[in-house]
């Protein structure tokens, strides 16, 4: 599917391009990390860029919008080829970072604000990527490695998700793979994930405006004909009330455009797509432990916490199969082991393993798409090829984040295992209400470290 998509682009010729705008000079914010992979730790001068979806998209020869609100311009974008030739995504300078997107960074830390009222628009959330240079993402090879990051989710109410995760994006953002992509990693291109999102404005270097449907309740988004899939490893999806980490394998390698059934769109096709959208999640609340994570609890969400995630292989080498994803918390100088599953008759697993995924999905009555898509071995194979680090803050127009922090599905029996996922009300999480009531909500990520197991 991926190769045929490339051939299609080549057949269209090289005159079309996902162009770089010249209205604003691009600036990447410094966010150094600690690299301990050699056995001793040193500072790596990494930076962050913002996803292309958040960037100003305009006519290449003027400041006229190609995309306004949640609609493409009929003048510049009557079809994908014309739109790709006409339109550019522009740079982000210091004023744009803070005044438009509400993002501040310094000293190895970045804070993402939920709602920012800028001079030309109202921005909701953001999605950032870690760069190793101004033109390439920093690739992480996580098998037989330990990854740690400090997170402050104290200012995130029910319904929001301050997420940090890895996805199998191309290191250059697709610059070399897709001739029509002229922007690359520098401009935050090439996003993909296991949900195979259709809301990306550009996919494989071409405008995704064909068959575009503006969202009925999201003034900034819509869906196009194409989705974009790749394996995803969620390190942290959380607010102040609930948290989880999740493996999402796919049966494709890396950045893969999709249409139709292959995208696994919600509904009858969900489990027919190329990626495991449900994933195998480890969530304390859903696993029957309701006093482990939250304000004043064992892991106190009113304070910053260090998340340590270990990717353990079958033979203790980088080439072994991934067999376990283990979580450790550090807070106030104390090491806190992950809680264990707390249901009668279910093994007290405290990490993601194949055995855990099989047993917990059977107990919850969930379809085991994780195994169908290759399980932890497939997830490990993907991690071995290299992943890009993503940090985001978002609200949920589809399910109001109830799958993370409330009862879901909302029609489910509250006594049925797996339905209770957090303490938040099922009436909450409505984006319009959150954006009005919690505009100043934020999440802070800091102190990123990568190294051998037991680095912490």
Helix/strand layout:
Elements: H1 2-11, E1 19-20, E2 29-30, E3 33-35, E4 42-44, E5 47-50, E6 57-59, E7 67-68, E8 71-72, H2 80-86, E9 87-89, H3 94-100, E10 103-106, E11 109-113, E12 115-117, E13 122-124, E14 126-133, E15 136-137, E16 139-140, E17 145-152, E18 160-167, E19 202-203, E20 206-207, E21 213-214, E22 222-223, E23 227-229, E24 232-238, E25 243-248, E26 256-258, E27 280-282, E28 293-294, E29 299-300, E30 305-313, E31 322-331, E32 334-337, H4 354-364, H5 369-372, H6 375-385, E33 387-395, H7 402-405, H8 431-437, E34 442-451
Parallel strand pairs: 1-9, 3-34, 28-29
Antiparallel strand pairs: 2-5, 3-4, 5-14, 6-9, 7-8, 10-11, 11-34, 12-13, 14-15, 14-33, 16-33, 17-30, 17-34, 18-24, 18-33, 19-20, 21-22, 23-26, 24-25, 25-27, 30-31, 31-32
Compact summary:
This is cellulose 1,4-beta-cellobiosidase (non-reducing end). The chain is α+β, with helices and mostly antiparallel strands. It is built from eight helices and 34 strands.
Summarize the structure in words:
The protein has a single domain, classed as Glycoside hydrolase, family 7, domain (1,4-Beta-D-Glucan Cellobiohydrolase I, Chain A), CATH 2.70.100. The longest helix has 11 residues, at 354-364. With 456 residues, the protein is an alpha+beta fold. Helices cover 13% and strands 31% of the residues.
Shape: globular
Structural Rg:
21 Å
Q: How many structural domains in the coordinates? A: 1
Largest sheet: 10 strands, antiparallel
What would the average pLDDT be, to the nearest integer? 95
CATH homologous superfamily classification: Glycoside hydrolase, family 7, domain
Q: What would you say the CATH architecture is?
A: Distorted Sandwich
**Which structural class is indicated by helix and strand composition?**
alpha+beta
Strand content: 25-35%
Low-confidence stretches: 3-16
Number of strands: 34
- Helix count equals 8
Q: End-to-end distance, in Å?
A: 41 Å
Helix content: 10-25%
Q: What is the CATH fold-level name?
A: 1,4-Beta-D-Glucan Cellobiohydrolase I, Chain A
Keywords: Carbohydrate metabolism, Cellulose degradation, Glycosidase, Hydrolase, Polysaccharide degradation, Signal
Catalytic activity: Hydrolysis of (1->4)-beta-D-glucosidic linkages in cellulose and cellotetraose, releasing cellobiose from the non-reducing ends of the chains
Enzyme class: hydrolase
Signal peptide: 1-17
């Amino acid at each position: 599917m991926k190769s045929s998509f490339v051939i299609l682009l080549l057949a269209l010729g090289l005159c079309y391009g996902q162009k770089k705008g010249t209205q604003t000079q691009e600036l990447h914010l410094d966010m150094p990390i600690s690299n301990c992979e050699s056995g001793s730790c040193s500072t790596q001068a990494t930076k962050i860029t913002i996803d292309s979806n958040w960037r100003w998209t305009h006519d290449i020869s003027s400041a006229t919008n190609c995309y306004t609100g949640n609609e493409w311009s009929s003048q510049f974008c009557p079809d994908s080829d014309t739109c790709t030739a006409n339109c550019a995504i522009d740079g982000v300078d210091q004023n744009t970072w803070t005044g438009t997107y509400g993002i501040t960074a310094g000293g190895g830390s970045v804070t993402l604000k939920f709602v920012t009222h800028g001079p030309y628009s109202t921005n909701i959330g953001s999605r950032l990527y870690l760069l190793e240079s101004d033109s390439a993402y920093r690739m992480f090879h996580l098998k037989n490695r330990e990854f740690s990051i400090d997170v402050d989710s104290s200012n995130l109410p029910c319904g929001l998700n301050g997420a940090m995760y890895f996805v199998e994006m191309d290191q250059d953002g697709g610059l070399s793979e897709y001739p029509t992509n002229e922007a690359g990693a520098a401009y935050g291109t090439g996003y993909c994930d296991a949900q195979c999102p259709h809301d990306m404005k550009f996919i494989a270097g071409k405008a995704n405006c064909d068959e575009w449907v503006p969202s009925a309740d999201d003034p900034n988004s819509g869906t196009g004909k194409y989705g974009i899939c790749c394996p995803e490893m969620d390190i942290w999806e959380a607010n102040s009330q609930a948290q989880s980490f999740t493996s999402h394998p796919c049966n494709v390698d890396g950045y893969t455009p999709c249409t139709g059934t292959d995208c696994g769109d919600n509904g009858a096709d969900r489990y027919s797509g190329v990626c495991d959208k449900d994933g195998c999640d480890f969530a304390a609340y859903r696993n029957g432990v309701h006093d482990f994570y939250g304000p004043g609890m064992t892991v106190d969400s009113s304070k910053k916490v260090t998340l340590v995630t270990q990717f353990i292989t079958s033979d203790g080498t980088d080439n072994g199969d991934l067999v376990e994803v283990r979580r450790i918390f550090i807070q106030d100088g104390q090491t806190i082991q992950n809680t264990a599953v707390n249901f009668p008759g279910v093994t007290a697993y405290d990490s993601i393993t194949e055995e855990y995924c099989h047993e917990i999905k059977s107990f919850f009555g969930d379809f085991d798409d994780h195994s169908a898509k290759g399980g932890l071995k497939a997830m490990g194979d993907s991690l071995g090829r290299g992943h890009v680090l993503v940090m985001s803050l978002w609200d949920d127009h589809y399910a109001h984040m109830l799958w993370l922090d409330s009862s879901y599905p909302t029609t489910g029996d509250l006594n049925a295992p797996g339905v209770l996922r957090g303490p938040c009300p099922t009436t909450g999480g409505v984006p319009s209400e959150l954006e009005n009531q919690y505009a100043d909500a934020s999440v802070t990520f800091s102190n990123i470290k990568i190294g051998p197991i037991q680095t912490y």
